[in-house]
Design brief:
By secondary structure, the protein is α+β, with helices and mostly antiparallel strands. The protein is 32% helix and 31% strand. It has a 9-stranded mixed sheet. The structure holds glycyl-adenosine-5'-phosphate.
C-alpha cells in the first residue's frame, strides 16, 4: 500500500491512537501522546508481554526510578560511549544525524557502524547537503553527540543526574539486592516495563524515533558454564534470519531455519539468544505482527552496542523500511563487572562446587626487615612485584635470587628473603560474575507496527472502508453496541446490553449517532472486532436476540442477549 506511514499517522491522529504532544503550544519533536485508543492498545501489548516474558517464563518484574545518578552511567559506559554522529549546518544551524543523512541520500546501508572520519569522507564523496536549507555539508565536521538527558537532583548546585537511556540499568544497579532475593541461585530473570529517554538528534516517523519511549526489558542472569535454555520449548519455531555474512554479499539472502537448526548450524552464536528469538517470534504473531513483513537481522561489529558480544534485531517492514522493534543482546558480564568495579557493592554470586576442590595458593611473605634497609623507598613496590610473580610465575622462586622490575629498574632479591610458599586449601566454591542475556523491546515501535500491519482499505458494497484488522488480543474496544435508533425503547435496551457486557469484563463502546453503516465504519477504523445491534426484533421476540457483526468477514448473526458475553469471549 502506498504511503502507509502517512495513512496510519492520519488515522492515528483522527481516531485517537497517537499524535504529537503539546500541539497547542506548537509541540516539540520526539514526544508523542497515546490517545484513548492507542493507550489501550499499548496497555494490552504490555500486559501480553508480561504474561509471556515475565510470568510465563517464571521471571519477576521490578519498577526502578527513571532518574539515576551520574556514577551509574560512568560505570555503565553510557557517559563515554552512548553517542550518535551529529552534523550541524553552518548556514541554518539545523542538526542532522550524519549516518542517517548518508543512508537517506546514498545506497550506503548501516552507516551507524562507521567511524566519524568515514562518515565525513562519505558526506564529501556524495556531496551531501543540509536537508533543511540545501547548503553544502562537505567540509563540515561530524561530531559525537551524547544522547542522555542531563538533569540536576535537588536544589542549588545539586547532584548531576540523567534520565535513564535504557530501563536495563535500573535492574543492573539493584543486582546486589536482587541476587539476595533470588537466594544466590542462578539462573533468574528480572523484567521491567518503563520509560527510557534519549535526546535523539532527529526524531522521526511518529512513534519510531522519539525522545521518550517505553521499553520492556528482560535481564536473564545466567552462569555461562552451567545454564542452558529450554531449547526444546521453541526448537521447531521457524525463523527468517539475515546474518552478517549474507548482509555483506551483493546478492545476500535470508536464511530460513528452525531455532534448533540455527543453534546447531551456528547461525545464531548464543543458544540463549536463539531461545528468545523463538519465544518472541510466537508472541509477535499472537499480537498481530505480519510474519511476511518480519525478520531477524544480526548486528555487524561496528553497529553493536558497547556492551554486546552478539546481537540480533527483530525488524518489521513498513513502507519498504525495516524498523528495529526489539534488540536481543548477549551482554556477557559487562554490566555487572563495571558496577562491581565502580560501586562499593558486590555484584558477584557465590557458586558452590559439587565437590570441594583442593587448590594450591602460591604466596610470598617478604622479609621487610631486609627489603626496607636494602631498597629504601622502593621496598613496598618490590614486595608487590614479588607477590605478583608468585601468582604468575612461581618457578622464578626456585633460583637463589629472584629478579623483579620496578619502573624499568631491575632488583635482585635473595629467594630466602621472599619466603615463597605453596599452601593447599579446600575450597567449596567461588565468586562468579553472572552473564546477562537481554531481549529489549521498544513498546511504541511494536504498537506502531501492529497498527501499520493491521491497516487496510477494502472495497465493500457501499464504497470503500478503512479497517484495522487488529488481533483480538490488542483491539482497544472489544465490542461496540448500537441501538438501531435511539427511540421506542431501543436505546434503553442497548444501554442495558452494553452495561451487562461491561460487567462481564469486556471493553465496550456505546454509540447511537449516525446511521448504522457509518457506525460500523467508525468501529472498523479502530479495529473493534464485533458490533452488536439492538433492533425491533430484539424487543419483539421473547428470546431477545441481537445481531452480532464480525469486523473482518462483515457477516452477521443473531445471538441471544443471555448468551452474548459468552459468545463474544
Ligand atoms: N537495553 C538495550 C537497549 O536499550 P536498544 O537497541 O538501544 O537496546 C531497545 O533499544 C529497543 O528500544 C529498540 O529495539 C527499539 O525498539 C526501542 N528504541 C530505542 N530507541 C528508540 C527511540 N528513540 N524511539 C523509540 N523506540 C526506541
Amino acid at each position: 500500500m502506498d504511503n502507509l506511514t502517512e495513512k496510519v499517522a492520519e488515522l492515528s491522529k483522527r481516531r485517537g491512537f497517537f499524535f504529537q504532544s503539546s500541539e497547542a503550544y506548537g509541540g516539540v519533536a520526539g514526544f508523542q501522546t497515546f490517545g484513548p485508543e492507542g493507550a489501550e492498545v499499548k496497555r494490552k501489548i504490555e500486559n501480553s508481554w508480561r504474561e509471556t516474558f515475565s510470568r510465563g517464563l517464571g521471571h519477576r518484574e521490578i519498577e526502578a526510578p527513571t532518574i539515576m545518578q551520574e556514577d551509574v552511567f560512568k560505570a555503565s559506559g553510557h557517559l563515554d560511549g552512548f553517542d550518535d554522529m551529529i552534523i550541524e549546518c553552518p548556514e541554518c544551524g539545523t542538526s542532522s544525524r550524519a549516518d542517517h543523512l548518508i543512508e537517506d541520500n546514498t545506497e550506503v546501508e548501516e552507516a551507524e557502524s562507521f567511524s566519524t572520519d568515514q562518515v565525513e569522507a562519505l558526506i564529501k564523496e556524495h556531496d551531501l547537503e543540509c536537508p533543511s536549507c540545501g547548503d553544502s555539508l562537505t567540509d563540515v565536521e561530524v561530531e559525537d553527540f551524547n544522547l542522555m538527558f542531563e538533569t540536576s537532583i535537588g536544589p542549588g548546585s545539586g547532584q548531576t543526574g540523567y534520565l535513564r537511556p535504557e530501563t536495563a540499568q535500573g535492574i543492573f544497579v539493584e543486582f546486589p539486592r536482587l541476587k539476595e532475593y533470588a537466594r544466590n541461585q542462578l539462573p533468574f530473570g528480572i523484567t521491567q516495563i518503563g520509560k527510557a529517554y534519549r535526546n535523539e538528534i532527529s526524531p522521526r516517523k511518529g512513534l519510531v524515533r522519539v525522545r521518550e519511549f517505553t521499553q520492556a526489558e528482560l535481564e536473564h542472569f545466567i552462569d555461562p558454564e552451567e545454564d542452558e535454555p529450554d531449547i526444546e520449548r521453541v526448537a521447531d519455531v521457524e525463523l527468517m534470519l539475515y546474518p552478517v555474512g549474507e548482509q555483506e554479499k551483493d546478492d545476500g539472502e535470508y536464511v530460513y531455519a528452525t531455532v534448533e537448526e540455527a543453534v546447531e548450524e551456528d547461525i545464531v552464536e548464543s543458544e540463549w539468544v536463539a531461545y528468545y528469538l523463538g519465544i518472541a517470534k510466537k508472541w509477535y504473531k499472537e499480537i498481530g505482527v505480519d510474519m511476511d513483513r518480519f525478520r531477524y537481522r544480526q548486528h555487524n561489529e561496528g553497529e553493536r552496542a558497547h556492551y554486546a558480544t552478539d546481537c540480533w534485531d527483530a525488524e518489521a517492514e513498513v513502507d519498504g523500511d525495516w524498523i528495529e522493534i526489539t534488540g536481543f543482546a548477549y551482554r556477557g558480564c559487562y554490566d555487572l563487572k563495571k558496577h562491581d568495579e565502580y560501586s562499593q557493592n558486590d555484584f558477584t554470586v557465590f557458586k558452590e562446587y559439587d565437590e570441594p576442590e583442593v587448590v594450591e595458593k602460591k604466596a610470598v611473605d617478604a622479609d621487610m626487615g631486609y627489603l626496607g634497609p636494602e631498597f629504601g623507598d622502593k621496598a613496598g613496590e618490590i614486595k608487590d612485584k614479588l607477590e605478583e610473580l608468585a601468582r604468575q610465575k612461581p618457578e622464578a622462586f626456585e633460583a637463589d635470587k629472584v629478579i623483579v622490575e620496578v619502573e624499568d629498574e631491575e632488583f635482585s632479591v635473595p629467594s630466602e628473603k621472599a619466603n615463597f610458599s605453596v599452601e593447599k586449601t579446600e575450597e567449596h566454591g567461588e565468586q562468579i560474575l553472572p552473564h546477562v542475556v537481554e531481549p529489549s523491546f521498544g513498546i511504541g515501535r511494536i504498537v506502531y507496527t501492529v497498527l501499520a500491519h493491521a491497516y487496510d482499505e477494502e472495497q465493500v458494497e457501499d464504497g470503500e472502508r478503512t479497517v484495522m484488522h487488529l488481533s483480538d488480543r490488542v483491539a482497544p474496544t472489544e465490542v461496540a453496541v448500537f441501538p438501531l435508533m435511539d427511540k421506542e425503547g431501543l436505546g434503553e435496551k442497548a444501554r442495558e446490553v452494553a452495561d451487562k457486557l461491561r460487567s462481564e469484563g469486556l471493553s465496550v463502546k456505546y454509540d447511537d449517532t449516525g446511521n448504522i453503516g457509518r457506525r460500523y465504519r467508525r468501529q472498523d477504523e479502530v479495529g473493534t472486532p464485533y458490533c452488536v445491534t439492538v433492533d425491533y426484533e430484539t424487543l419483539e421476540e421473547e428470546a431477545e436476540t441481537v445481531t452480532v457483526r464480525d469486523r473482518d468477514s462483515m457477516d452477521q448473526k443473531r445471538v441471544k442477549i443471555q448468551d452474548l458475553a459468552e459468545h463474544l469471549k
